[in-house]
Amino acid sequence: MVRHLETTVAAFPIAGAFTISRGSKTEARVVTCIISANGSTGMGECVPYGRYGETIENVTAAIEAIAPRIAAGMDRAALQREMPAGAARNAVDCALWDLEAKLSGQTVASRLSETLPAPLTTAYTISLAEPEAMAAQTRSVAHRALLKIKVGTEDDESRLRAVRAAAPDSAIIADANEGWTEENLQRHLQIAARERIGLIEQPLPAGKDGLLARIPRPVAICADESVHHTRDLAALRDRYDAVNIKLDKTGGLTEALLMRDEARRLGFQIMVGCMVGTSLAMAPAVLLAQGADFVDLDGPLLLARDREPGLAYSDSLVFPPEAALWG
Fold first, then answer.
1. 34 lies in which domain range?
2. 261 annotated as a binding-site residue
3. pTM of the predicted model as reported, rounded to 2 decimal places
4. Which of 89, 111, 133 is the endpoint of a domain?
5. Mean pLDDT score, 23-32
């Protein structure tokens, strides 16, 4: 069976702007890997992330460089060995999963579990802004069960207080994106505890997070930028309570499933997150997130337009993908 690989690049406008401690963007630029064989087509989407040295150009080039091996029959196990973790491998890996499902007539969901996948409660993200603006964003979505607020400034006390006041009944995650420091960490954690924040993502820079092992943690701390591979997990047990598994970091669903299982074995809580992308990127993550403690798969909700067909969202729920989308 000969397989043909191609890539496409597309930009999806964000509704407004998406702002974190490292900056803002107004569109999601995504790379799609398309693998065809025997009249069937599998697709996978990735979002190159500059924080990890990724660009649209080098990710596209990496995918296209593996095309001859894919055409010759490379499987997902060989892909893990020959391509490094990251966005490029994610797109190829997910396209292979999708193609396997199309060729076999067996859905990815049925291969992963005997139980049908269920709708999941997903977080909805509030971009970093001045406290009053974040409160206004929050009031418009305060009916949602789970909110995720972007923080990561020198003084986030007013932001945490403003968002909690605007959504007194919602569960809240705060994501600092490496923006806090050793000097302000404990003060921010104490404020977060008082404001009933349920989880703090990556408060300190990756590689400079040793302090987390030496101080009380009144709020559970989740590794994001600090964890990419299954082999990273063991060294993080003294400083993190949870890990955020993203397909664009692990390099696809194949590795992400291994990471999820090992993280559970080591006693971590599981969060499944995303970059800002379309429903095609979220679809495999919804299957990965079955049974997760925290789900953050709101990427399509932040876009002005999504792919068609897309995932179904209703209030706080995201529903498993239909085969016409992926898997």
1. 4-111
2. no
3. 0.95
4. 111
5. 92
